[in-house]
Amino acid sequence: MIIYGLKGIELKSKTKDTQTGNISFSNQEYSKLLIDAKIAGFTNIKDYLLSLHNNLNPKKTIRKQEPSPRLKTIHKTDLGKIICGDSLKWMAKAENKKSVNLIVTSPPFGLLSKKSYGNENSENYCDWFRSFAESFNQVLADDGSLVIDIQGVWSKGIPARSLYHFKLLQMLCEEYGFYLCQEHYWWNPSKLPSPAEWVTVKRVRVKDAVNCIWWLSKTPNPKANNKKILTSYSESMLSVLSNGFYNKGTRPSGHKLSKSHFSINHGGSIPPNLIVASNAASCGPYFDYCKKYGLKIHPARFPYAIPDYFIRFLTNENDLILDPFAGSSVTGFVAEKNNRKWIAIEKDIDFANGGKGHFANKSPYKLEKNEYTIRSPHKI
Ligand SMILES: C[S@@+](CC[C@H](N)C(=O)[O-])C[C@H]1O[C@@H](n2cnc3c(N)ncnc32)[C@H](O)[C@@H]1O
């Protein structure tokens, strides 16, 4: 597309640092370039051409984002606020540097079938994410954490998976200096089987029901305390604690279990890096509020359990939590309930307004109940 417009370029050096170029286009070529530049989000052809050029070396490309709308606070509590607008704009403010203790968020994924709020292509995902990666680095406190929930996607037309979310992880660590503290996985048992062609028709793949959650930080030792996220002991563990009977000695795995190994009740067991949480809710204060005010229901809401886990694990009361892709502001609501300060930024006005619905909930804060069993793949 670009080649035809570049015939006959002459570059002359005016000063040591500046080059001027004469490029002639036919009217048709010029208007086509201008239209393509606008579609790609540029206001002039020069920036568009430079971006195309930089794309030849994707590692250095920072995609120019759409012009950002004005930031507008649309809901405020003692601890936080929902802001409508572009989170890049909020993060660019000097007073916000190193002020955030935890970013917990779910960006638009690189989906093939786009959601109403728009998604990036998985092929360009890293380029799109670069401005956010830079801004996250700037606003995060040195001992803060960055938690990104990201869904894997299928490649177009074939039963194979895209690598975009792994490339994102690699880019964040290798180019922006983040450490991968620990990958987590979110199993959503209520996910529907798709894409139909591979899963329910040809039956050559299984249900994709697990999102990756990358927990990253600026240093290898961010603030974290797993005592704050202990889960209830199982029946069998409770009986071991009360009667002291268990297989002492060396396990087949090589782990040596001493006499006193399971003798102390620590108040709960340390959770694994697999979080189970459904987001199948379709009623409650958020839905009532959106219905009452004719607002769109957000199609990709967090269950409370996801931000709740990371907020309690990685921050203390009064720390500041940021969700720069806030959607329905579940993160903000959960931060409020955990006595943390918070900022939830969402660019879509309907979604941002819908977030007020969570705060209309006067009933006590309760996490969703998640009954689940993992069945072995035996014959039915
Ligand atoms: C996957 S959704 C997040 C859903 C959210 N976790 C929830 O619980 O509702 C991603 C959201 O990011 C928003 N978004 C995309 N780019 C943005 C930007 N630059 N600033 C603020 N919001 C943005 C989209 O409008 C979309 O609602």
From TrEMBL:
Its EC number is 2.1.1.-. Keywords: DNA-binding, Methyltransferase, Restriction system, S-adenosyl-L-methionine, Transferase. Transmembrane segments: none annotated. Residues 100-352 form the DNA methylase N-4/N-6 domain. It comes from the Bacteria. One of its GO terms (molecular function) is N-methyltransferase activity. This is Methyltransferase.
